[in-house]
Specification:
The chain contains three helices and four strands. The protein has 137 residues and is mainly alpha-helical. It has two domains: 67 residues, no CATH class; 40 residues. It has a two-stranded antiparallel ribbon with strand order 1-2. A hairpin with a 6-residue loop joins strand 3 and strand 4. The longest helix is centred in the first third of the chain and has 32 residues. The radius of gyration is 26 Å and the shape is flat.
């Protein structure tokens, strides 16, 4: 399987670099393949977990020089039922709104209710990315 995947990816890269294939066509085609692969992986993950259980939870499963291990999910706390957390979260949201306004306007803002002063902050833009979506017919 490794050689066939490597051959396909090398062929596509070569065609794009030689001008035989438009980069956008290669991109869309590869995204379709990735989506299909992701779908299949999700379908078989439970079976891989079962296979790991057969070999004992504490032993790794080695396949083609890859180690497959089961990793426990992380503990997550739901703070939404905490009045203290909700109050502080609302304060944080209010402060963020004030700072955003100060930054957009390029001036310091003083909150009439609290007397707190909010100054503009530096703005960082996230990296641009490509978005792909199927056109409904």
């Amino acid at each position: 399987m490794n050689k066939s995947v490597e051959k396909i990816t090398n062929d596509i890269t070569e065609k794009v670099m030689n001008g035989e294939m438009k980069p956008s066509n290669a991109y869309v085609g590869l995204r379709k393949i990735r989506d299909q692969i992701d779908f299949v992986i999700k379908q078989i993950e439970d079976e891989v977990m079962d296979e790991l259980m057969l070999y004992n939870r504490h032993e790794d499963l080695i396949v083609d020089d890859f180690r497959i291990v089961q990793v426990a999910g992380r503990t997550m706390y739901d703070f939404k039922d905490s009045h203290t957390w909700n109050d502080i979260n609302e304060q944080k949201k209010r402060i963020e709104r004030m700072i955003k306004t100060a930054t957009k306007d390029g001036v310091q803002i003083i909150d009439d209710e609290t007397g707190e002063m909010y100054e503009p902050v530096p703005v960082k833009n996230a990296k641009s990315y490509l978005k792909i979506e199927r056109i409904k017919k």
